[in-house]
Amino acid sequence: MSKRILLKLLAISALGSTMALPLAARADTPLKILVGFPPGGSADTIARIVADGMKDDFSAIVVENRPGAAGRIALTALKNSPPDGHTVIILPNGPMVLFPHLYKSLPYDPTRDFTPISELARFQFGVVSGPAADAGSIAELVAKAKADPDSATYGSAGTGTVPHLLGTMFAKAAGIQMRHIPFQGSAPANTALLGGHIRYKFDVVAETAELHRTGKVRILAVTGPKRDPQVPDVPTLREAGVDMQATAWFAMYAPAGLPEAVRQRLETAVNAALQRSATRDKLVKLGFEPVGEGSAALAAQQKADLELWGRTIKDAGIPALD
Q1: With contact defined as beta carbons under 8 Å apart, do 118 and 164 qualify?
Q2: Binning pLDDT at 50, 70 and 90, where does residue 149 land?
Q3: Does the keyword Signal apply (predicted)?
Q4: Does any domain span residue 64?
């Protein structure tokens, strides 16, 4: 082999290695995790727990908060980021499966503009009975609502929120009527429940478990596919005789057009983090179920939930927002 040919082959090899750097998402590259909510909230907390679990796979990981428009600002930033594996987002399911049905237009398309990486954590809700309801089971709630339809009032943090829509789903599945009372946030709704101004509330189990344990409210059933370890005495809705199931989740996404090698690298890193006992213990302590099932499972979950919440929002008659 001539010296000139050898030098040319070496040059081509070096060029190929340089071009492969961004595709390999190598450990000497940093990772930026966008969060569309302020520090201290659930999305931010989960992002920092997961980032800590992934720290050995990257030279540096930065969690960057870009709050505003319920996560839409951060999602737009991700959409406009290069698909090189250096920028991802961690967010709840709402912007990906609820917002397409709640808003007339969005600055992103939840299926075309992003690459699913993995579902991180899942949580469920409880059907909560307050002091004014005097219902000790789902069967009693249904019987009371059928006897006096006006009595089945339930509160939420506002129209179009997941608890509001869960009430719509539950009423349809149980064959009853329930009257929704929107509040300006979850805290005022809790105050109204404890004060006897509303009878029921659909709430995250982690937010209500202690009130249930102390007897101030009663969680009649949970909305997920299995009992929640925070309240193991509480049946699922299906166990209680109502054919309904719904959960919420947090997940990681990257921009669309991500090379397959980069997607695999990110999926492997985040799922390995979710298998570490330190990461899992922190999430479970906060009331979340660690998942880590990969991009295909997340894409399937997103598709199913887009259809589920689309039907629910249509049934609720919620007009599209500007």
Answers
A1: no
A2: confident
A3: yes
A4: yes
